[in-house]
Specification:
The protein has 374 residues and is mainly alpha-helical. Helices cover 65% and strands 6% of the residues. Strand 2 and strand 3 form a beta hairpin. The termini are close together.
């Protein structure tokens, strides 16, 4: 009888996904400069400050991906690397609380002039950690001990991020973790037992901070306080709406001139709408839909359960972040502090996302083939 074996096809990675990675990263650099040039000139006396920082992260991450694609072994499947990466993420998240505060939050680790946001690394490390143990314990998912290990990992990461505080990212990570568990074979009824008490915890944290409730109210009733809590929502909609079909042209945005806060980070999609119009926003959406499609194709063709779950989890993480960011910009959801992957300014997010896509590309080089007859 024939037996199957896993092979590595050097250089046979998904070309469409690689092109999307390069195009979105390059487009992001252009938009970062367009949205941050004036701010950087006034704050640092260098209009290229944010662009230079973002370009450095993009260049280093892309070169790393190119190097990793030549490695024949599935390095991301190594037990010591997966568990070590996850523990490192937890350590960095805990380290945030002894670092200097920024805007009354503890979301960054600073060392030697560099600043890292561990929650971005945690998204990738959690997906790999869950994929590894779902594969290892695929026959014991109904056991309490195995289930508790996986749920505890998701809960611990989400809780540390929640304490920073970063409510939006914590909620995203928690739902992402449950989605990966479901994809890995955990029954929905078991996840429901976890979701209900977790929902209570998130509701308590939501109620403890007035600014979080204000964000929800700003989306539901923007007319009540247009110069206060609804300012972001209204200005973002104005930016997108003023672009029309073709936009006001690159670099000519008015809203980025201190009318729309965080124009180069969380609200960069609004400036895309203003400068490049409906065609620009639809083009960006199409790019992420193509990324979602290629990721699912790679997950379906992946040679084993680990790579199937990891590929699906990474694809879901990037695509869901993009969709959430767009809904916030369009005023369809409260601000969550989630950037537009590969486009928004932020080296931690950019580097983590590029490395995640790099793993997807590496998985796309691996196949199961029919071996010789026994």
């Amino acid at each position: 009888m024939n037996r199957t074996e896993e092979i590595f096809r050097a250089g046979r990675f998904d070309r469409t996904l690689f092109l999307l990675l390069v195009v979105l990263t390059g487009f992001g650099l252009v938009m970062v400069y367009s949205t941050s040039g004036i701010l950087a000139s006034e704050k640092y006396r260098d209009s290229f400050h944010y662009l230079a920082s973002q370009s450095l992260g993009a260049g280093a991450a892309l070169l790393t991906v190119l190097a990793l694609l030549s490695i024949r072994r599935a390095f991301y499947q190594n037990m010591f690397l997966v568990n070590g990466f996850f523990l490192l993420s937890l350590l960095l998240l805990a380290l945030c609380f002894v670092m200097p505060e920024h805007a009354r939050t503890n979301r960054w680790v600073e060392w030697g002039g560099l600043r890292l946001q561990p929650s971005e690394l945690a998204k990738l490390s959690l997906v790999l950690f869950l994929a590894f143990w779902l594969d290892r314990k695929k026959d014991r998912l109904l056991e309490v001990k195995a289930f508790f290990l996986l749920v505890a990992a998701v809960g611990l990461v989400a809780f540390l991020i929640l304490l920073e505080p970063d409510f939006g990212t914590a909620l995203f990570v928690f739902i992402l973790g449950l989605a990966v568990l479901f994809l890995g074979g955990v029954k929905f009824r078991m996840l429901a037992l976890v979701f209900l008490p977790a929902a209570l915890v998130f509701a308590l944290f939501l109620g403890r901070a007035d600014y979080r409730k204000n964000r929800v109210d700003a989306v539901l009733h923007p007319e009540r306080d247009p110069l206060g809590k609804s300012f972001h929502v209204i200005q973002s909609k104005m930016a997108v709406g003023s672009g029309g079909l073709l936009g006001v042209s690159m670099g000519e945005s008015v809203q980025k001139l201190y009318f729309l806060p965080s124009a180069h980070t969380d609200y960069i999609f609004a400036i895309i709408g203003e400068e490049l119009g409906l065609l620009g926003t639809l083009g960006t959406l199409l790019a992420f839909l193509l990324l979602f499609w290629r990721g699912l194709v790679i997950a379906r063709r992946a040679p084993n359960l680990f790579t199937q779950i990891a590929a699906a989890g990474i694809t879901l993480s990037i695509s869901a972040q993009a969709l959430l960011n767009m809904t916030v910009v369009l005023g369809l959801g409260p601000p969550k502090g989630i950037p537009l992957p590969l486009v928004s300014f932020g080296r931690s997010s950019l580097v983590s996302t590029i490395l995640a896509v790099g793993i997807l590309l590496h998985i796309s080089q691996r196949r199961l083939v029919e071996g010789a007859a026994e």
